[in-house]
Design brief:
Elements: H1 2-22, H2 27-46, H3 53-64, H4 72-77, H5 80-84, H6 104-118, H7 126-138, H8 144-171, E1 174-176, E2 179-181, E3 187-189, H9 196-199, E4 201-203, H10 204-226, E5 231-234, E6 238-241, H11 242-274
Parallel strand pairs: 1-4
Antiparallel strand pairs: 2-3, 5-6
Helix pairs in contact: 2-3, 2-8, 2-11, 3-11, 6-7, 7-8, 8-10, 8-11, 10-11
């Protein structure tokens, strides 16, 4: 009986240690690192000349996150037809995106989050969506690589929401496609994604869609480039395959570049009317 109990205890201990080894990566620290890096990248992108947005973003992420040999110009110039496939629409949703850089299980958890973000009427709700998504990813049975890839996407979304809010405060512009406060102090709602040049503000749905398009562009390009380069070392998570590492870095550059270009364009149209 004692031997049986000892054997049972040993099996339980081995199982626990194995689980601890599998979960040895502190994913909360991973999220913090990604958020910090992508926020800094947005600051660089927003302050760059349009022709330098992608290259400057790449340099920062390459320096702070991982060294993946990518061509920023390819991320910028990918034809939209390759991103949305056979669909011809101005409304970007997860249903018409080429998410081939993810496996089916990753898509199952990511698609609902992306759809919620893309359909938000109030970006103040984004944080709650992202937190729930991160928690779901972290406690899942995904591999470290799979978790890292998904958390990179959600961190980029969070950083984009923060930079949009900062731009509104800094430049005195409004948000389009989300509830805002009018000049007279009353509530108003410029929904429907109207062009920012017409109403003077940042087109939030347009910026996020531009970011998601850039994410797909960059992830596909980066995954292909990274797949030819062996492995990549990232902070905290360590070594991951080159294809996944390339998709993470490329996706981040594309997302940040897409959102930033959209925001800058909206600010330039809006600034004469709403600048402080």
């Amino acid at each position: 009986m004692k031997k049986l109990l000892l054997l049972l205890f040993s099996l339980i201990a081995f199982s626990c240690n194995d689980q601890l080894t599998f979960n040895s990566v502190d994913f909360s620290e991973v999220v913090n690192t990604l958020n910090k890096t992508y926020t800094a990248a947005f600051d660089v992108a927003i302050s760059s000349k349009p022709e330098n947005v992608y290259s400057n973003t790449y340099e920062l992420i390459d320096r702070e996150l991982a060294n993946v040999k990518l061509d920023p110009n390819k991320i910028r110039q990918q034809p939209q037809a390759e991103i949305v496939g056979a669909f011809h629409t101005t409304q970007i949703t997860s249903a018409n995106l080429n998410l081939s850089f993810l496996n089916q299980n990753q898509k199952t958890i990511l698609i609902p989050m992306l759809d919620k973000i893309l359909s938000l009427s109030d970006i103040a709700l984004a944080d709650e969506i992202i937190i729930k998504f991160n928690d779901q990813v972290i406690i899942s049975s995904f591999t470290t690589e799979e978790k890292f890839q998904l958390l990179s996407i959600s961190s980029g979304v969070k950083a984009s929401i923060n930079i949009i809010s900062e731009a509104v405060s800094k430049y005195g512009v409004k948000l389009i496609g989300t509830p805002i406060v009018s000049d007279e102090g009353g509530d108003s709602n410029n929904s429907g994604g109207s062009p920012a040049s017409d109403t003077g503000g940042i087109n939030v749905p347009g910026a996020l869609q531009a970011g998601v398009l850039g994410l797909v562009t960059g992830a596909i390009s980066g995954g292909y480039a990274g797949g030819t380069g062996g492995t990549v070392v990232f902070p905290i998570v360590g070594t991951i395959t080159g294809a996944v590492g390339g998709a993470v870095v490329g996706g981040a550059i594309g997302f940040i570049g897409g959102v930033s270009m959209s925001i800058v364009q909206d600010i330039l149209f809006s600034k004469p009317k709403y600048s402080k």
